[in-house]
Amino acid sequence: MTEPDNNFPEEAIFHGIPASPGVAHGLVFKFSHGDIEIPSYEVPLESVDTEVQRFDEALSKTRCQIREIRNEVAANLGDDEARIFDAHIMVLEDQAFIDDVVAEIRECEVNVERCVHRVSRRYLDIFAKIEDSYLKERATDIADVTGRLLRNLLGLTGSGTAFLNEARILVADDLTPSDSAGLDTSKVLGIATDSGGRTSHAVIMARANAIPAVVGLQNLLDSLEDGADLLIDGFDGTVVVNPSEQTLFRYGKISKRREKIADIADSLTDRPAITADGKKVVMFANVETFDEVKRSLELGADGVGLFRTEGVFLRNNKFPTEEEQFQEYRQAVELLAPRPVTLRTLDVGGDKVLASSSSREANPFMGLRAIRYCLRNENVFRSQLKAILRASAFGQVRLMYPLVTSVEELLHANHLLGECKKELESQNVNFDSELPVGVMIETPSAAAICDLLAEHCSFFSIGTNDLVQYMLAVDRINNDIAYLYEPCHPAVLRALQRVIQVAREKGISVGVCGEIAGDPTFLPVLIGMGVEELSVAPPLIPEVKYVLSRTSTKDSEILLDDVLSCDQSNGVHDCLKAFLRSTMASEG
Fold first, then answer.
1. Can you give 530-552 as a three-state secondary structure string?
2. Which of the following is catalytic: 115, 450, 457, 513?
3. Vertex 82, ends 445 and 291: CA angle to 5°?
4. With 405 labelled, which of 60, 69, 181, 434 sits at a CA distance of 20 to 30 A?
5. Using CA atoms, how far apart are residues 185 and 376, in angstroms rounded to an integer?
6. 300, 293 contact by CB (below 8 A)
7. What one-character DSSP code corresponds to residue 164?
8. Alpha carbons 466 and 515: distance in angstroms, whole number
9. What is the 3-state secondary structure (H, E, C) of 216-251?
10. In whole angstroms, what is the distance from residue 431 CA to residue 385 CA?
11. Is 201 a catalytic residue?
12. Which band of pLDDT confidence, cut at 50, 70 and 90, is reported for residue 1?
């Protein structure tokens, strides 16, 4: 990276993490969070109830705002990306926090803003003393939510970009969800942040609004002045300060070419996913809501490779009944019939916490989550299994267990499934008695014993997001180590190849449903490994089909040999990017 220089008389290049695809060029707007000035004044005893009422009204308003943000993000990106806002709603519904603020108002007889500030500072001071990355994330949630709550109490509704006369490139240290929600996105050409990773708040907002973004730039903010000339490349993670005429010309050509490719990709919606040499690839979608199911069909999906059933739990913050689950699953299954629907059993824990959960774990990603949670809570699991079985009578359903780490877990889950089948049979309830059962491969242990797991299931689906996280010991929501989350790591590639090879040897199907399944750069190496099923977010389907149509199986196998000979992630990156450039060279 070029050494920082506030003046930048010549072109300077910074390298970060590509976060949201696209290219943007414009003037810099330096975004600052800014401190809120908290008023402090005594409240007469007869006005205390009025202050409590103001607090209740601000809580309600803030909850509504966050739910609106969540719904918008979910509609654009899916529920997975929107879940960060569930934690914020939980803060606003936390009875201990509410009671503490009300007590502060009544005991101290001062204005509500001062009380909210005092209570939140006490909470944050406690969290600051805890050396745990997950709890530090929760502290960030508290700070962001209470900041929004205070702004509502003070009537500070203006956004950081509202006063701009023209759209600019926003440069910041990082963006909280409230920062992101307060932006007038029509005035944001692009986003560049010093902090953050691929799952940061800034990235969620950028993707939801199709805004190019680069994160993890480390010291760009302090190196720039407002109004500096900036170009950001969200495809490669490059930021160019004072781009030269030559650079602008080159990026202008790239932009036109990408627009042409996007148009061609959209024209492939109604065609099957086929490689350049005629190999058919099953093109599934990852979904969580009925609207996403409909959208996946419109974009040409062959079915659903991952239906996140926890959505019905998390959206309502309660345990749904068997009937409620059945109705939701049945609706999706009937719409997709005769296309297959893969229903993943409840995957909570980690960053997906049920409001009804009374426990908080110090290390939730390694704790009671996914299949572990289900096997510990058999009544919840049985209710869901019966709902899935009942839905299987209305179309082609596949059932899949998440985060399996041992044969014992798989056998235990299958045993409970067998008991649920017997119960439904005794009640003369129809279901698919040959319901295919699969396992998500997303832990190192599952990858290592995939040959043993294959003896007790019908298919594998590789969840690369968690597989990368666990293989590399990288918390993927921890911004401090986001740069270590690397799907191109040789260990990840070897694990993928082994799982795919074992599945083929055992005669069971294998697909990839993680983020790399929709990454155009990574697709060819997956084809080279022999993957025949891909499951991606619905909006990615046209582009994936396009890249596949330009990629031959033979060339992909040669690429695989080259990639596996690399001993470093950077070498893998270079191979993949060079291959994609050569494959797309004739287009445009």
1. CCCEEEECHHHHHHHHHHHHCCC
2. 513
3. 100
4. 434
5. 44
6. no
7. -
8. 10
9. CCCCCHHHCCCCCEEEEECCCCEEEECCCHHHHHHH
10. 11
11. yes
12. very low
Nearest to 373 by CA among 398, 403, 399: 403
Residue of 25, 201, 374, 457 with catalytic role: 201
- Token pair in block for residue 424: 């439904």
Dihedral sign for Cα 103, 108, 110, 114, please. negative
Query: Phi-psi category of 230—alpha, beta or left, where left has phi over 0 and alpha has psi -120 to 50?
Result: beta
**Distance, CA of 446 to CA of 346 (rounded, Å):** 18
Name the CATH superfamily, with its identifier, for domain 45-154. Answer: PtsI, HPr-binding domain (1.10.274.10)
> Tell me: domain 263-468+506-584, CATH 3.30.428.10, correct?
no
Q: How many residues would you count in the chain?
A: 588
Tens of pLDDT, residues 129-176: 766 655 666 677 788 788 888 888 887 654 455 556 688 998 988 777
Burial class (CB in 10 A: 0-12, 13-18, 19+), 536: buried
What is the third-level CATH fold of 12-34+160-245? Answer: Glucose Oxidase; domain 1 (3.50.30)
- Which residues are 400's β-sheet partners? 344, 438
Parse the chain into domains and list their residue ranges. Answer: 12-34+160-245, 45-154, 263-468+506-584
